[in-house]
Automatic annotation (TrEMBL):
This is Methylamine utilisation protein MauE domain-containing protein. The chain crosses the membrane at residues 7-28, 48-70, 77-100, 120-138, 150-170. Residues 9-134 form the Methylamine utilisation protein MauE domain. The keyword Chaperone does not apply. GO terms for cellular component: membrane. It is found in: Membrane.
Length: 186
């Protein structure tokens, strides 16, 4: 029984390190090529009206989550943040692929080489890894947990999905009806 708990603990740590690597790489890539990243967000059918704010918010959030994952005391919070952010990224890609009038260019860095469908699968795998880590971390910290992962995971997924849908609807409304020379370049 002890070896099984140790195995799960190691897997949770590995998942945390994978997320740290992913988020630090992604954030640094965005910040190093910030103008291009901001331009790509401006071309997004979902986020064009909010490109400036989102351009700062995304890498900042990625770095904050990576920091939380590095500190054992805050690892559970970091895993939850990673789950929500990757859910939001996945929903964003799903909406782009299935409901958008056009598909903008992809992210920068290594991930730029992926198609949108492959990127969706990649993100979905990371969402599942975070969910697994949240469940195993909660079982390890049973006494400290105030909310069960059975509630936390679906509520987090729904809230992340809701946030992206609201951004999409507001962005479309702003671009179509309140457009003060904000332009989208397909």
């Amino acid at each position: 029984m002890e070896s099984k708990a140790r195995f799960k603990s190691i897997i949770v740590e590995i998942i945390g390190y994978l997320y740290i690597l992913l988020f630090v790489y992604a954030a640094v890539s965005k910040l190093l090529d910030f103008e291009n990243f901001q331009l790509q967000l401006g071309q997004s059918p979902l986020l064009s009206a909010f490109a400036v704010g989102v351009a700062w918010l995304v890498p900042g959030t990625e770095l904050l989550i990576a920091l939380l994952l590095m500190i054992p005391k805050f690892r559970s919070l970091g895993l939850l943040g990673a789950f929500i952010l990757m859910t939001m990224f996945s929903v964003y890609i799903f909406i782009i692929l299935h409901y958008s009038s056009f598909v903008p260019c992809s992210c920068g860095g290594i991930l730029e080489k992926m198609t949108w469908n492959v990127h969706l699968v990649f993100n979905s795998v990371f969402v599942l890894l975070a969910a697994l880590a949240i469940v195993w971390q909660a079982k390890k910290n049973r006494k400290k947990a105030s909310i069960s992962p059975v509630l936390t995971i679906p509520l987090s997924a729904v809230s992340g999905t809701f946030a992206i849908i609201v951004l999409f609807l507001f962005s479309e409304n702003i671009m179509q009806y309140k457009n003060l020379f904000i332009r989208r370049y397909p």
